[in-house]
Amino acid sequence: MSDSLTNEEFSRYGRQMIVQGISNNRDPIEHQLLLKNSKICVIGAGGLAAPCLSYLAGAGVGEIGIIDDDVVETSNLHRQIIHSTSKKGELKCDSAKKFINDLNPHVQVNTHPVRLTNDNAFEIFAPYDVILDCTDTPMTRYLASDVAVLLGKTLVSASGVNTEGQLTILNFENIGPCYRCFHPKPPPPNTVSSCSMNGVIGACIGLVGIMQAVETLKVLQKVYTKDNFEPFMLQYSGYMDQSLRRFRMRKRRHDCVSCGDSPEITREKIESYEINYLSFCGSRDYDVVDSMERITPVEFKEKYWSAPAKECVVIDVRPQAHYKISNFKTDTVTNIPLATLTSMKGDIGKLKEVVPEINEDSNVVVFCRYGNDSRLATRELKDKFGIQNTKDVIGGFFAYIDQVDPSIPKY
Amino acid sequence: MSLIDIKVEFLGGLDSIFANKRSYEVKVDNTKIVTLKDLIFDVIVKDLLVNPEDNYSIYIQDETIRPGILTLINDADWELEDELDYLLQHKDVISFTSTLHGG
């Protein structure tokens, strides 16, 4: 516990310390010391955390833990601005630590280069006051919420994809609602979108991360109290007109299995994996084709691509935007997004409207970005359309690029 | 007949199954469309949902709004109102938002 600020800290934090009207009539030095003596833990060092961590570190939070086992990749940099081109391949938590300490050497940064799991979550969260959820799957969100509830920690939770974002405070001082109060049942896996698949505008997710920093400051500096806190969710939309909506949310549910009157979720059940977040949230089953129905990118090139005599219909089932960004640049490939193919419901007549030369005896090769959707499409083409000679390209377009033609851009 | 105006919004990417339109103004006969349940099943699913045979399950599950979608009545969580039994009023804003997970 620190009970004073150095002269350097007075200069560094002076501009925020002189802001009036936000400190619940607390002495400004005491208000700043609340930050200096606080410990927060951020799960994920990506698009939300990048600006969020920057501002919280700049503001003088005393100790910051960062949980992330990913390394910096080029595709992160348009939004994860705490990292940089020269840090490619470095652990994100190490890269973030360097950035933070360069910005503010007073902050103690603890790196946790692991994935948050049932057996490490309690130990990692324990020393911190407030947890920031900047993760990207429902699974981790349920785990983080359950552990935060059991340890009595406030969770500032943000998310975003595409041009939108959401932000809420969960389990506030152990009185507020938790993630399970809002979402007693997980969403079906096929409705969960991700930044990697659906895209994300860096400035939009960044803005949500900055708003997360503002909410975290209010929690740490006790601007929110048990008396004035009302459960809420902020909904940000970036396009067309930017808007921020504040929704008034339900209070803690008495029947919540995590934070309710008679909770069923316990530390023992989590640590023993009796509570299995993967099976609770489910996952989309792509394992629907056998090895005979698949070919490697090299086989695709040798047997089909380079042999036009062996007439072959090539279908790329990626979403249209993906296709337009990068493709084989030839009209012998037809782009039919998986959703479009599925909506044809096995009607070969509808398929012929897009690919006139196709019939039940055609040799068809299907690929997508990574080789997941193409397996679902292969099943669809064989079972619903009756095209028996359908093959899926293992690893998809990106594996083709890696193994056969690195001159094609990956995105 | 007693016509009332309702604004219906689809946020968090949910507009993709509603013709990519985030906001609709609908006029309904309040003698027939009385509750939020009526609005959802007799107006939204019938008139606004695109390709219902493909998209119904993205919006509805077990005869209610599917898990992962939050429903707001005039910017308040529908749990604070009567959920499906909420009695519609003139100029209500009903919002549906898909929960986001990315970060």
UniProtKB/TrEMBL annotation, chain A:
Pfam families: Rhodanese, ThiF. One of its GO terms (biological process) is tRNA wobble position uridine thiolation. Residues 308-409 form the Rhodanese domain. GO terms for molecular function: ATP binding; nucleotidyltransferase activity; thiosulfate-cyanide sulfurtransferase activity; URM1 activating enzyme activity. It is found in: Cytoplasm, Cytosol. GO terms for cellular component: cytosol. It comes from the Eukaryota. PANTHER family: ADENYLYLTRANSFERASE AND SULFURTRANSFERASE MOCS3, UBIQUITIN-ACTIVATING ENZYME E1. This is Adenylyltransferase and sulfurtransferase UBA4. The lineage of its organism: Eukaryota, Fungi, Dikarya, Ascomycota, Saccharomycotina.
UniProtKB/TrEMBL annotation, chain B:
Pathway: tRNA modification; 5-methoxycarbonylmethyl-2-thiouridine-tRNA biosynthesis. Keywords: Cytoplasm, Isopeptide bond, tRNA processing, Ubl conjugation pathway. Its main location: cytoplasm. It holds the Pfam family Urm1. It comes from the Eukaryota. InterPro entries: Beta-grasp_dom_sf, Mopterin_synth/thiamin_S_b, Urm1. CDD domains: Ubl_Urm1 (cd01764). It is found in: Cytoplasm. Signal peptide: none annotated. C-terminal thiocarboxylation occurs in 2 steps, it is first acyl-adenylated (-COAMP) via the hesA/moeB/thiF part of UBA4, then thiocarboxylated (-COSH) via the rhodanese domain of UBA4. Belongs to the URM1 family. Acts as a sulfur carrier required for 2-thiolation of mcm(5)S(2)U at tRNA wobble positions of cytosolic tRNA(Lys), tRNA(Glu) and tRNA(Gln). Serves as sulfur donor in tRNA 2-thiolation reaction by being thiocarboxylated (-COSH) at its C-terminus by the MOCS3 homolog UBA4. The sulfur is then transferred to tRNA to form 2-thiolation of mcm(5)S(2)U. Prior mcm(5) tRNA modification by the elongator complex is required for 2-thiolation. Also acts as a ubiquitin-like protein (UBL) that is covalently conjugated via an isopeptide bond to lysine residues of target proteins such as AHP1. This is Ubiquitin-related modifier 1. It comes from Hanseniaspora opuntiae.
